[in-house]
Amino acid sequence: MLRKGDDIMYIQQESTCGKSRRNILIIIILLLCSGTYVQYVTTRRTDLFSFEPVIPSLRKINDISSIAPPTPLENEMPLACQRADFRWLASDRSYWDGWVSKSFFMRKDGRFTRKNVQIGQDESVCVAVLLGPIPAVSSIKHMPHYAPSDTIIMTAKSESTGAAIPIRLLQHDKQSNVYYASVKFTHHGTWTLDTSVEYRSYFWEQPGIHHYRPNRFTSRNSLTVYKKPNEKSETKALVEQPSDVCDFTEAFALKDSVWIRKEGARELDDVRFEGPHSVFSPSCRLDFDQSCFQSRLTLHIWGDHHLKRNLQHLVGDRPTDMCNQEQQPSYDIDAPILHNMTEIHFGEIDTDIVEHHQRWKLDMQGISRRLPEADAVILGVGNLDMMNMRQHPNDFAKAFMSFLDYTIHDVYPNQRIIVKTTQYFAGHTRALNYGRSEAYAHIMRSAIASLSEQDKQRVMLWDTHQLGYKENACGDSLLSHSHVVDIENAILSNLFI
């Protein structure tokens, strides 16, 4: 029961409590404001106004800092070289003085010999190179390298038949001055090794600051390959078309293929790829599969002028001078080219990837959406990057991995994608040399090999670099003669199967 004056005391208590709450609220607001001010003062202006992009893929387009370059493929010791004791060979001074570089054929069992070697047709033998001291030492950074430290161009040649086999050498994992390869000889004759050491100690990565002084020499011994008996003729040895069909899912499917001068190619029973001066004898059965373009397909092609040359040959628009880059038509990507039952849209990528990958990701994504949906896609980039003297191969490795990943998962997530390697080059001109040529192609091989098993089901490598042979090049350029482009297209036709 309220007594007189109780209501006044109640009102006074309420007023006191209200003031306390207001004071507490003011203190909390002041603390929050002071905390915000401290954060504003200590935070960089760029971070303060950062935000997540509205479209998640925009970060993927622009930021490649988190992209890891592909792991370089590891080399396996070929069977023909497994019994060779390279460590002993490089250190025993009774056989080698350690100063003069030399190349030689090993015995058929893989052991070293100073004598000439003899084998029969279709047999393999190990070849090796021992390099002398490095003339200058470079500071080698701990980073991936996509070609050996020393660039060596080796060709097995038979003067009697006019045949030549370009050989890709592997560097020994422990004895770094030893290089080796296994070579299968399908053609008879007496063979020697022509060797040219182009650069040492990764100098090929930055040719703009290193002189080109190749060291050329011939093998210390020779190889005699005896003719295979021919049941059809007692007087003529026959080189038959290989029975095994080329498996282009395997790396270097055309390894040990032979280029033969025309006058020495009379023993071939079936010439399929013929140039003005030589014919190509593949190490496996290679045919142009016409059926790949007989079905109704929509094909999107994105690439540089080298890929455009493949398209010209494919549709019968062959230039009169294959070594003239100016003799190339311009294709409108919105105006399809019809080849048999295939509708082809060609988009030319006319800049390098490292500096302009953002642009091409956006262009490909936008243009592909307005075109008829593709059944298959062909990519051919990297040559313009390789020609950039200031570009390191590792810069391309990272940018290409980002470009490929975006193409596979964001632009063409359901299509078969065929990736063409960069062009072969031997010699020296500005940024181009054999080492960079090998490295850029190997980056692409490594990138495809590093994909997930699911992605590998629809992404394939079109390895045209393995056809490289200096005699087929147009001078000191990346262009190849017409018959080489025909062989490249034959490989392509088999990738659609």
TrEMBL record:
Gene3D superfamilies on file: SGNH hydrolase (3.40.50.1110)
UniProt-listed InterPro entries: SGNH_hydro_sf
Key words of the record: Membrane, Transmembrane, Transmembrane helix
Membrane spanning stretches: 21-40
Keyword Transmembrane helix attributed: yes
UniProt-recorded name of the protein: Rho GTPase protein rac1
Record organism: Mucor velutinosus
Gene giving rise to this polypeptide: RAC1_1
